[in-house]
Design a protein that fits this description.
Blueprint lengths: L2 H16 L8 H10 L2 E4 L1 H5 L8 H12 L3 E5 L4 H7 L7 E5 L4 E5 L4 E4 L4 H13 L6 E4 L3 E5 L5 H6 L4 E3 L13 E4 L5 H11 L3 E7 L2 E6 L4 H11 L7 E5 L5 H6 L2 E4 L5 H6 L2 E2 L7 H10 L5
Parallel strand pairs: 1-2, 1-12, 2-3, 7-8, 12-13, 13-14
Antiparallel strand pairs: 3-4, 4-5, 6-7, 6-9, 9-11, 10-11
Helix pairs in contact: 1-2, 4-12
Length: 301
């Protein structure tokens, strides 16, 4: 069976089995899955990372085995590269990293930049003005290539950011002529959906999303994890039907919906589970490895 046929067969008969039980996959169907899927995309926090934001030996082993089989590994995270590289340092084999919800894509471990789609300075000012108008400026973060700007510029944020390889500074009263991948602010969980909709109405040409129940992030229009996955698949010459994606939060919804096979973590929010084709175990129970070991007949670590 050729690759196109494998994907077609997958859509017709394999996917429904996942919706019931992973163990229902036959040896033949596992062979089709190995043939069909050539790219695995992963969110970090609440997905690939386990307790205390640590990459477990089991998840790392699964990714390493896939890479050895020629499957492309792609990390797609809302994190900034400086913090993402700290928690993925053990992934020392080639992979792609999309940071800032897809605003910057690099090759790793070389760090070679492949793609960026950033907010221009005037857009950053517009987002900050929107936050101020809505009273969302108690804590804001803006990033550039050289600096992590945040307000208030005080503890505990100074200590929390000092361990990363990036300079920090308070957000200037008037934002300078510097582009930024995203602007984010901390909001109250109880009213997060209401605030999100207010921001979307005031910033219709932008992407606004919750990366956690209390963290609202704004990127340039068309920049999200779903478009990042599609860009990576095109770059690696992999049909989008031949991709698997794992996620848990609202900013993962576009990615899970876009992937050929979207997997929600057991701890995922309902919005992710609703668009996923399968729900795996909790991120603290190595839910990523649980799926990959089954699909690709990997050795469990």
């Amino acid at each position: 069976m050729d690759e196109a046929g494998g994907v077609a067969h997958l859509k017709r008969s394999v996917t429904p089995l996942f919706l019931n039980r992973m163990c229902a996959i036959t040896a033949f169907e596992q062979g089709v899955l190995k043939l069909a899927y050539r790219l695995v995309a992963l969110d970090l926090d609440g997905t690939l990372l386990g307790a205390n934001a640590v990459l477990s030996p089991r998840n790392l082993s699964a990714l390493r085995q896939l890479a050895q089989q020629g499957v492309h590994i792609c990390i797609i995270t809302g994190r900034i590269p400086a913090t993402a590289k700290v928690v993925t340092a053990a992934i020392d084999f080639p992979h792609l990293l999309a940071g800032y919800n897809g605003a910057l894509i690099t090759e790793q471990p070389t760090g070679k930049e492949l793609y960026r789609a950033w907010l221009q300075p005037a857009q950053v000012r517009e987002v900050l003005a929107c936050f101020q108008e809505l009273g969302l400026n108690d804590h804001c973060d803006v990033f550039s290539d050289e600096c992590w700007y945040f307000t208030p510029y005080e503890e505990p944020y100074l200590s929390q950011t000092s361990r990363f390889d990036i300079a920090t500074a308070p957000i200037p009263e008037k934002w300078p002529d510097v582009a930024a991948p995203k602007v984010m602010t901390i909001i109250a969980r109880a009213v997060n959906q209401e605030i999100l909709q207010q921001v979307k109405r005031k910033l219709p040409g932008y992407e606004a999303v919750l990366s956690t129940p209390t963290l609202l992030e704004v990127t340039a229009g068309g920049v999200n994890k779903g478009t990042a996955l599609r860009w990576m698949a095109d770059y690696l010459d992999v049909p989008i039907e031949a991709t698997i994606a794992f996620g848990d939060q609202h900013n993962d919804v576009d990615m899970i919906r876009t992937a050929g096979f979207g997997v929600a973590m057991g701890n995922a929010v309902d919005a992710v589970k609703q668009v996923a084709k399968h729900v795996t175990a909790h991120h603290k129970e190595d839910g990523v490895a649980v799926v990959l070991e089954s699909l690709f007949s990997l050795a469990a670590s």
